[in-house]
Amino acid sequence: MARLFITPREIDFISDLTKEITKDIVGQKIYYYKVRDDLTAVHEVYEEAPEKVFDPPVIVDALVEWGPADNITVKFGSEKRYTITANLHYRDLLDKGIDVDMGDYFSYGDTFFEVIKVNYDSSVYGQIEHYTGITLVGKQARKGLIDLKPIGPTEEAYSDDDAIQDTFVQQRGFERTKEGETGDIRSLRKKEVLDEPISGPKEVSPAGGNSKKDDLGMIDSSFYGDD
Fold it and tell me: Which partner for 208 in 3, 81, 195, 222 could form a disulfide, CB atoms 3.0-4.6 Å apart?
């Protein structure tokens, strides 16, 4: 598409729309663990790091594609190994100063994945300086490569407090929400093309449900914040 018709304002609009879908509607996220090359000792012969050092995990909004596991034969039998694809918003990574590389790790649910591929998605209408996103392909990490407790939500079969996410809060470009700092920037608002939304971030939470608990002891969640 000609630059005559797709101007920086249209690029900002496309970026803000995709952020809205990812952050305010879908609500999927991964926890990204950056490997500290400067603190990780690499074996001189095998060029592997038996014990890796990681930066604290960073929450990254993503669109996650999860497929069935592959059955792999190992020394003591067979086991399942998952591969996952996480689609990240390109400008969101720039806004937060997050650099993704092969060899880093991320968690989704109760599983850790090693990044084996980092692919740039297509450019926006052929404008080479603007990308739609970055796709991470993660392969389930072998035991011992990253011995950390996964951060929820994980699985409803677990009894941990964060196993089930019962509250989802939109970001809507606000610097802070009730869940803390977001790092979310909407370009058209930053450039004062659009005003800040009159209403704040909405949420899906037990606050919008009824007061009765179900058989599992859970309170229904519902959309909350219309008043």
Answer: 222
